[in-house]
Amino acid sequence: MKIAITSTGATLDATVDSRFGRAAMFVLYDLDNDSFEVVDNIQNLNAAQGAGIQAAQNVFNMGAGALITGHCGPKAYAALNAAGVKIYAGADGSVESMLAKYRAGELAESNEADVEGHWV
Amino acid sequence: MKIAIASGKGGTGKTTLSVNMALAIGRPLTLLDCDVEEPNSRLFLETQQLSEEVVNTLIPEIDGSICNGCGECARFCQFNAIVSFGTKPLVFAEMCHGCGGCAKVCPQQAIKEVKNRIGAITTYKTGDVTLHQGCIDVGVSMAPPMIRELKKKMSESELVILDAPPGTTCPVVATLSEVDYVLLITEPTPFGLNDLILAVAMVRELGLPFGVVINRVGVGDDRVHRYCAEEKIPVLLEIANDRAVAEAYSRGESLVDNVPGYREIFAGVLPRIEEEYKRWKQ
Amino acid sequence: MKELVVISGKGGTGKTSITASIAVLAGKAVIADCDVDAADLHLILEPQVQQHEQFFSGKLARIDSARCTSCGLCAEYCRFTAIVSEAGGYRVDPNNCEGCGVCVRFCPVQAIAFEERHCGEWMISDTRCGGMVHAKLGVAAENSGKLVSMVRRNAQQIAEQTGASLIIVDGPPGIGCPVIASVTGASRVLIVTEPTVSGAHDMQRVLKLTRHFDIPALVCINKWDLNPQLTEEIEATAESAGATVVGRVRYDALVSQAQIEHKAVVETSAESAEDIRNIWKRIENEL
């Protein structure tokens, strides 16, 4: 399975980006062969509105089955849920530390949006 | 004649001017409160509510039995109001601008448009003045559809006064389109001048005739007067900085009925506008 | 890092004047002027612009008159009356175009281009109270909510780089998109209101919004002595809505004089300066 992590940088030691819709980029990690690629989110950073919804669409299109991020608003949550992507919100620290936690089963799946949505 | 009252920023006396002009004119007219995020005109009129109508926009509704999950609607939508994961798409009503494009592009014709509430228009009447107040629901972010709906009431009177939202952005432009004359109200202060310059740029771009009302004359300095003189902008009214005015305002009272001398002052504005408008037309 | 957003619902309550004073009292904060529709804070803080950027948001349709066959389908399909019929063909009125793309998609001869819309500019500056991010929106520009987000994001970056512990945001009026964009995720919202029926009415709408987004609200009443009774009522309303009242500022004719001198009220000998200092102490405790 592939897992998407919002990141502030293009390496595994970069800090998790707490934003989802307007995250700087995604690290798309393939758990089956321990490789990763970086997917930028520039288009979304500049989205006039609905960045969270568009980001959910992008995560789905990348083929990720799970997402690790800081905060996830209600619209993005609804969209990810409909896409069948599991959400692990509340992340902080480095991308690799979150991956380690995920592997160790220490991350709890989010059952609801953890922040109120907004319009931008 | 359709007259809009606008200003570069809020709190300069737009509502005071609209309401008191409407009350002082002395013949039937329609007052539209287009400040649909924070409508306040009603607070200064002793009125009875006549009616309330819900205002809707159109949003898509997708028929899951016809939709094949192709995602064309989601790809088309510029506002991220539709998202598709290969099954029936999700619609986010609050993001939708109501352009109708999704229904048109759907190859299966699985989308129809349905009503979605954004707020209400309330109608009040007092003497000669019929007030229609638009108010969007808290959490609704799009004012222009409400303003467009409100402006449909313009046809009911020969004379219409529109109380515009503050600023120079899209809701204001939506208010000003198709009016005959714009009154820009400001204060004689540095902030007042800065905001007036922005408002003047806007009405000039829209190609509308306009004049200025200076409120609270006596505070600040003469920079707004100097600017209007240099730019050859007519100053149609000056309202003195008067604590009696501020106090009547704070209590929600009209000036024409509660502060001596103000009925005559506000009654004089319309003839001045008509004069300026005639000059502009020539 | 804390973020204090100053809003008012209604314009003209003295929000920007009080924001300027708070910026001075806070010392080294980062200031974000998100009142992009009618930005005035720069008149007091006199920013020295260091960096200037253009701002694009959304799309705008443009008809290529050489290819247009004047079939009128675009005008028929446009829901926003943005297609204007003129002698010699059709034209898009940018003031009404919402950038939905319907005309672009359905033009039978592909005569309509879909371009990025230039909406304004934003700047990073230095002031005597710290870094400042501010912006200017073009006339009739769409979506200042996005610009607000960008101004805030840049202010946060500057705060991170310079180690500033506080960001002070001068928020926009109303309760629409730009206000929502300016308050989401903030530590505290300071609502500056005045004892008028409109001030009371608009404060309640703003408080609904801050509750909706679960942001702790502080309230101060400017020009309170214009109507002491209404001031008390507003304070009671604010408290019963879960907000914290942090003080009152007296009506002071010298506020305009401070503006003329490009000074914050607390940089002058105006009597209301004392009131603002007391409010700032309360806010500091709350933060």
Question: In a few lines, what is going on in this structure?
Answer:
By secondary structure, chain A is an alpha/beta fold. Chain A has helices at 42-45, 51-62, 74-83, 95-103, and strands at 2-7, 25-30, 35-40, 64-68, 86-88.
Care to describe what's here?
The complex is a heterotrimer of chains A (120), B (282) and C (287). Chain A has 120 residues and is of the alpha/beta class. Helices cover 29% and strands 22% of the residues of chain A. Chain A contains 4 helices and 5 strands, in the order βββααβαβα. Chain A has a 5-stranded mixed β-sheet, with helices on one face. In chain A, helix 2 (51-62) packs parallel to helix 3. Chain B has 282 residues and is an alpha/beta fold. Chain B has helices spanning 14-25, 72-76, 101-105, 144-151, 170-176, 190-206, 223-230, 243-251, 255-258, 262-267, 269-281, and strands spanning 2-6, 29-33, 48-62, 82-83, 90-91, 111-126, 129-136, 160-163, 181-186, 210-217, 235-240. In chain B, helix 4 runs parallel beside helix 5 (170-176). The longest helix of chain B has 17 residues, at 190-206. The model of chain B has no long low-confidence stretch (mean pLDDT 92). Chain C has 10 helices and 11 strands. Chain C has helices at residues 15-26, 41-45, 73-77, 102-106, 144-162, 177-183, 197-212, 228-240, 254-260, 272-286, and strands at residues 2-7, 30-33, 48-63, 83-86, 89-92, 112-127, 130-137, 166-170, 188-193, 217-222, 244-249. In chain C, strand 9 (188-193), helix 7 (197-212) and strand 10 form a beta-alpha-beta unit. In chain C, helix 1 (15-26) packs across helix 10 (272-286) and helix 5 packs parallel to helix 6. The termini of chain C are close together. At the B-C interface, helix 3, helix 5, helix 6 and helix 8 of B face helix 4, helix 7 and helix 9 of C.
